[in-house]
């Protein structure tokens, strides 16, 4: 029965009801099959109902669901070990969402300076167009007025500078600066990759001024861009990194990763979470990594991404009145539209292709990482049909 009346009206939902998923497909109540290149906003990294994830969740469900962090949780130890072995990090804290992973990252950075005798160093430099979540601290970090307005005083200690402006970053550094926080590829902001050189320059600035580099890889991480984490393309490492979305494959799971040095202030009692690192989440997170860390999986992502990217570039040439630009990295792609992005989203949805709108009039294409080249071509064919119809409607 349809009855949305009891729900907060915070979301603008599409009138679609899905009851089942299979790989890159979502099946609606009425039996219609949609090609899911939204993937729950880059969350369903292995598609829907992946047999390995289903088995891991079922197996854990029959043992124990929840323990809290009053006891040792073996799944946290194994997932933590695998994450630290695969990355720059030495330490991991598990959360249930991206915003919580960012909260942990922010607290870790501030606490680092506090522990080093500099409690006044708590300011964090962030960038125009950023998105870091919807908690009181992370809306301040993102700095977007539309998310901050009406929720009381903006949490102090976040300073926003223009995207890609190194001079502005330098000018913003003071005695109070603790860290720089950036998404290697802006997601909600409109699939804006940060130039490699800029990432390298930020790393240098942090080293020079004794600041911590915090990366928000909630959307860009866990294979999405064709590397395990997007910062690897720039050949740098952060001090702290927030991860979520794809790591859980659809189960609510996030993580804050840090070096030993950066995490040194986070001693017993300084942070916690009731659910964070719960056995169900750990079983699924470990199962996601079983697949993502398999030999050849990242190659597969890069190969399919190339097919998809080239196809999108061809569509851009064919439909210059619809598509202004194609951008992104790996399977984190965006079409910058010439028409209102809401119209493009509707048009592709009419072809039973799901995508996600973003800032800067961009349509995000975030297929499951398991997508095949053939499925990518099917997606392209649907975008092509949508563009044809939009072009015809424009001419009429
Ligand atoms: C989605 C997202 C978040 C917030 O994650 P939630 O799980 O919604 O709290 C933070 N940062 C980035 C880059 C994201 O894409």
Automatic annotation (TrEMBL):
It is found in: Cytoplasm. It catalyses: N(2)-acetyl-L-ornithine + 2-oxoglutarate = N-acetyl-L-glutamate 5-semialdehyde + L-glutamate. The modification N6-(pyridoxal phosphate)lysine is found at residue 245. N(2)-acetyl-L-ornithine binds at residues 134, 273. GO terms for molecular function: identical protein binding; N2-acetyl-L-ornithine:2-oxoglutarate 5-aminotransferase activity; pyridoxal phosphate binding. One of its GO terms (cellular component) is cytoplasm. Its main location: cytoplasm. GO terms for biological process: L-arginine biosynthetic process. SUPFAM superfamilies: PLP-dependent transferases (SSF53383). InterPro entries: AcOrn/SuccOrn_fam, Aminotrans_3, Aminotrans_3_PPA_site, Class-III_PLP-dep_AT, PyrdxlP-dep_Trfase, PyrdxlP-dep_Trfase_major, PyrdxlP-dep_Trfase_small. Coiled coil: none annotated. Keywords: Amino-acid biosynthesis, Aminotransferase, Arginine biosynthesis, Cytoplasm, Pyridoxal phosphate, Transferase. Binds 1 pyridoxal phosphate per subunit. Pyridoxal 5'-phosphate binds at residues 98-99, 131, 216-219, 274. The keyword Transferase applies. Gene3D superfamilies: Aspartate Aminotransferase, domain 1, Type I PLP-dependent aspartate aminotransferase-like (Major domain). Belongs to the class-III pyridoxal-phosphate-dependent aminotransferase family. ArgD subfamily. PANTHER family: AMINOTRANSFERASE CLASS III, SUCCINYLORNITHINE TRANSAMINASE. May also have succinyldiaminopimelate aminotransferase activity, thus carrying out the corresponding step in lysine biosynthesis. This is Acetylornithine aminotransferase. It comes from Shinella kummerowiae.
């Amino acid at each position: 029965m349809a009855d949305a009346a009891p729900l907060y009206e915070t979301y603008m939902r599409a009138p679609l009801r899905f009851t089942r998923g299979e790989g890159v497909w979502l099946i609606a109540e009425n039996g219609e099959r949609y090609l899911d290149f939204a993937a729950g906003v880059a969350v369903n990294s292995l598609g829907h109902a992946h047999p390995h994830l289903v088995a891991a969740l079922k197996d854990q469900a029959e043992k124990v669901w929840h323990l809290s962090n009053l006891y040792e949780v073996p799944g946290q130890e194994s997932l933590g070990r695998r994450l630290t072995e695969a990355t720059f990090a030495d330490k991991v804290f598990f959360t249930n969402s991206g915003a919580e992973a960012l909260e942990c990252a922010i607290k870790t950075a501030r606490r680092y300076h506090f522990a080093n005798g500099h409690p006044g160093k708590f300011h964090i430099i962030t960038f125009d167009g950023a998105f870091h979540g919807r908690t009181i601290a992370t809306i301040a970090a993102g700095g977007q007025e539309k998310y901050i307005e009406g929720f009381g005083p903006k949490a102090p200690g976040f300073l926003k500078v223009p995207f890609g402006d190194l001079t502005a970053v330098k000018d913003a550094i003071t005695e109070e600066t603790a860290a720089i926080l950036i998404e290697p590829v802006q997601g909600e902001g409109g699939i804006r990759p940060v130039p490699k050189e800029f990432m390298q320059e930020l790393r240098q600035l942090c080293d020079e001024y004794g600041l911590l580099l915090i990366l928000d890889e909630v959307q860009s991480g866990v294979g999405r861009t064709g590397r395990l984490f997007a910062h690897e393309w720039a050949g740098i490492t952060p001090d702290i990194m927030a991860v979520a979305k794809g790591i859980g494959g659809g189960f609510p799971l996030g993580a804050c990763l840090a070096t030993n040095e950066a995490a040194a202030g986070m001693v017993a009692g300084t942070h916690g979470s009731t659910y964070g690192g719960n056995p169900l989440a750990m079983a699924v997170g470990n199962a996601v990594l079983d697949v993502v860390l398999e030999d050849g999986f990242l190659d597969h992502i890069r190969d399919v991404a190339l097919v998809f990217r080239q196809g999108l570039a061809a569509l851009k040439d064919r439909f210059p009145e619809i598509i202004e630009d194609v951008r992104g990295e790996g399977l984190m792609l965006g079409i910058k539209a010439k028409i209102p992005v809401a119209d493009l989203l509707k048009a592709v949805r009419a072809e039973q292709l799901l995508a996600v709108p973003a800032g800067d009039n961009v349509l995000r294409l975030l297929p499951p990482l398991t997508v095949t080249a053939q499925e990518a071509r099917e997606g392209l064919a649907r975008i092509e049909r949508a563009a044809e119809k939009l072009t015809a409607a424009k001419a009429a």
